[in-house]
Design goal:
9-stranded mixed beta sheet; disordered N terminus; single chain; Rossmann fold; two-stranded antiparallel ribbon; alpha/beta
Length: 255
């Protein structure tokens, strides 16, 4: 009887079934992203089916906190964050960038699709000022996204930002410098971004999903197309945690 039953069990689980089950469990647990205050959907797609499919929600959840780390001087990671913020804001949403130092370079932001008329920059003298501005902005309910540049961050500070994002139905993006020490906490996802040789079509990054609540780590070679699609295109799937730039080409997914 046991051998007869075992022979009917599939050797490999259906990935679509697993993704649907994870999403259902998260809804039952109360962790699934809901709708924002203006009626926008609770998830924004990255425009690449391979990346969206690797996320249990089918995209990047709004009203949640996400962390981004850089492997270089931070320019690649900052560009990735700006591209995410542009997709989150769309044509009507506002983005708050909380940082220390000078204003970001305007033409560079436009390259990644962020309308400068939709951007508010808040400069702080210290890290605590940046975190305060980001938390208040997320909680206000007036933003599509808030981007904050931070170094080491206490777990309680992450939790406050996550709660503020849920309260204000806004997306929090924490941008860490390369040397930052961080571990998974309240954030739903954690990404590591490294530069890759670009092409005439657009800039490229090595995008590594280091942590995803309810999902698995993954990595891709990604190209950004602002004028063409306003989204990301997967050029190749990579080995997670490897320095190699490609484990073999895959079909580019655009959504």
């Amino acid at each position: 009887m046991l051998s007869s039953f075992s022979s009917r069990v599939p050797a490999q689980p259906d990935p679509v079934l697993l993704r649907n089950l994870r999403a259902r469990i998260r809804r039952l647990e109360g962790h699934a992203p809901g709708s924002t205050g203006n009626g926008a959907p609770g998830v924004v797609t990255l425009g690449a089916a391979d990346i969206d499919g690797a996320l249990p929600w089918g995209g990047l959840p709004r009203a949640a906190l996400h962390e981004v780390l850089g492997n270089d001087t931070g320019n690649a990671a900052a560009g990735f964050c700006v591209a995410l913020a542009a997709r989150l804001a769309g044509s009507t949403g506002l983005v708050l960038w909380c940082r220390r130092g000078h204003d970001p370079y305007g033409p560079g932001l436009a390259l990644f699709g962020l309308d400068l008329r939709r951007l508010i920059v808040a400069r702080g003298r210290a890290g605590k000022d940046v975190l305060w501005a980001m938390e208040e902005g997320l909680r206000s309910g007036a933003l599509a996204a808030a981007l904050g540049e931070t170094r080491e961050l206490a777990p309680i500070a992450r939790r406050r930002l996550q709660l503020a994002a849920e309260t204000g139905s806004a997306t929090g993006l924490l941008l860490h410098p390369p040397a930052a020490k961080t571990a998974p906490g309240a954030a739903l996802t954690r990404w590591r971004i490294a530069p890759a040789p670009g092409t005439a079509a657009g800039p490229r990054w090595r995008v590594e999903l280091e942590y995803c609540r309810g999902g698995m780590p993954a990595a891709w070679l990604v190209e950004w197309h602002n004028e063409k699609t306003g989204g990301f295109t997967v050029v190749a799937e990579l080995r997670h945690g490897s320095a190699d730039h490609a484990a073999g080409p895959v079909a580019a997914g655009e959504g």
